[in-house]
Amino acid sequence: MDQQIDVVTSAGRISGRVDSRFSEVAEAFVENFQARDEVGASCAITLEGRAVVDLWGGRVTRDGADWEQDTLCTVFSSTKGAMALCAHMLADRGLLDLDALVTDYWPEFGAGGKEAARVKMTLDHSVGVPHLRGPVAPGGFYDYAQMVARVAAEPAFWAPGTRGGYHAITMAWTVGELVHRASGRRLGRFFDEEVARPLGLDFWIGAPAAVEPRISPMLPAEPDEPWLATRFVQAALGAEENPTQLFMRDFLLLDPNTPECHQAEVGSANGVANARSLAGLYAPLANGGSLGGVTLVGADTLARMGRVSMASHDDATLLVPSRFALGYMKSTDNRRTPNTVNSSVILSEPAFGHVGAGGSLGFADPACGMSFGYAMNRMGTGILLNDRGQALVDAAYRSLGYRSNASGAWLE
User: Fold this and answer.
1) What does the pLDDT average to over 16-36?
2) Which pLDDT score is estimated for 234?
3) CA 195 – CA 295 distance, rounded (Å)
C-alpha cells in the first residue's frame, strides 16, 4: 500500500495505509469522524487477497484512550458470518448435510412442531424459533448448555421453512449446536482452530481473558424521533408479545461491556474482532475459497453460500423486506420502504456477508475478489447499516469502477 494516512481530527488521530486506488475510502473514513460522529473505528479491505485498505482511528470512549491498530470490539451479528462459515466447512467435508433433518444430528430438537426442520433452515432464518417466549435470567445467554436445551424444547413460532424471521440470538444455538454435534467440537473452539488461527485473525467467539484490555467498550445508540417512529420500534414497545418485542428484550440481555459477555460463546452476537479480521475472514471466500495455503471451502460450497435461500417482503422479526443466503445477508434495499430507518445494506448482487447491530459489517464479493470489514464502537440506530458503514462500502465500490446502486445493488 502506497499511501500513509495520518490525520488529526477533533475525534482523535486517524492512522493507516491505503492503496492509492482506494483513496476515496480513506476520505470517507475521515469524514465519518469529522461529519458523522464516529468515535472509534477500523476499516479494512482486501482485493484478490492483498490488503488495500487498513485504517483505524478515534478513541475507545469519547474522552478516552486512542483507538489503536490492534483495538478490538464486539461486532454483534457480524459474528453470524463466522458461525455460518463453520457450518459450511463441515458441509464441504461431508460431515453436515444441509438438506438433512435437524433431528438426524440433534434428536431433542424435534419437539413442539419442529420435527420437519431441515439443517439449512437454521441458516436462513426460517426454522421457526427466532426467540424464546419465556423469560431469560440475566446472564442466561452465557450458559450454553441451558440455552441449547431451551431452544430444543421451544415450540415453533411457525411451521419450519414456511416463512422467514430473523433469529437474532437463538441462531447461536440452532446453528452452533449443529456445528458441535457434527464436528465434536463446540463452535468457539472449531472456529478458533479451523479458521481464526490458520488465517491469523484476531477474532474470537468466546474471547480469552488475555485480550480483554484491547476490547473497546460499546457506546449505545441514541434514539431519535425518526427511529422511535419506525414500525420496528413501535412493535417492540407494544403491549402484545411478538417476535420484534422479544428481539429487543433479548438484545438488552447481552452486555457487550463485560468480560462475561466477551468470554461467553454466543455465535450469533458476541464475536470480538476488528475490521482487519472481518476482512481477513472473508478474503478466502472472495477468492475461490482458498487463500495463502488455507482452504476453507470448495467451489460448489462457495457458490451455495452466496445464493439467496430465503427472501421475505415482511420479515417476521425485523418487519422489513429481507434477503438471506444460508447464514449470510445479501444486498437489501429498503431505502424507499416506509417507516424504516437505516434498514438497508447495499452491496453488489454476488456479495454476501453480515451486518452487526449498530453498523459493523463484513462481506465477500467473489465477483471482484474483494473482502471488506468495518467495526466501530458508537452504535447507530436502525436494523442494518447506517450512513457511516454504507459510505465506506459505497467508496469501495466506486474505487473499483462500479457506477450505480440505484437498482438496489452496486453495478459496474
Assistant:
1) 98
2) 96
3) 9
Summarised one tens digit per residue, pLDDT across range 188-214 is 999 999 999 999 999 999 999 999 999
Copy the grid coordinates of residue 398: 466506486
Q: Output the pLDDT for position 239.
A: 80
Secondary structure (H, E, C), the chain: CCEEEEEEECCEEEEEEECHHHHHHHHHHHHHHHHCCCCEEEEEEEECCEEEEEEEEEECCCCCCECCCCCEEECHHHHHHHHHHHHHHHHHCCCCCCCCEHHHCCHHHCCCCCCCCEHHHHHCCCCCCCCCCCCCCCCHHHCHHHHHHHHHHCCCCCCCCCCCCCCCCCHHHHHHHHHHHHHCCCHHHHHHHHHHHHHCCCCECCCCHHHHHHECCCECCCCCHHHHCCHHHHHHCCCCCCHHHHHHHHHHCCCCCCHHHHHCCCCCCCCEECHHHHHHHHCHHHCCCEECCEECCCHHHHHHHCCCCEEECCCCCCCCCEEECCCCECCECCCCCCCCCCCEECCECCCEEEECCCCCEEEEECCCCEEEEEEECECCCCCCECHHHHHHHHHHHHHCCCCECCCCCEEC
Top CATH class, 3-399: alpha beta
Give residues with Cβ within 8 angstroms of 159, minimum separation 6.
113, 116, 128
Rounded to two decimals, what is the model's pTM?
0.98
Residue 1 has pLDDT above 80, yes or no: no
Q: How confident is the model at residue 87 (pLDDT cuts 50, 70, 90)?
A: very high
pLDDT at position 240 is 82
Average pLDDT over residues 2-29: 97
Q: Is the pLDDT of residue 7 over 80?
A: yes
Domain boundaries, the chain: 3-399
**Cα three-residue angle 73-166-146, rounded to 5 degrees:** 70
Q: Is 45 in contact with 22 (CB distance < 8 Å)?
A: yes
> Can you say whether the dihedral through the CA atoms of 86, 87, 88, 91 is positive or negative?
positive
Contacts of 310 (CB under 8 A, 6+ apart): 124, 125, 126, 164, 322, 323, 324
pLDDT at 361: 99
pLDDT in tens, 103-133: 999 999 999 999 999 999 999 999 999 999 9
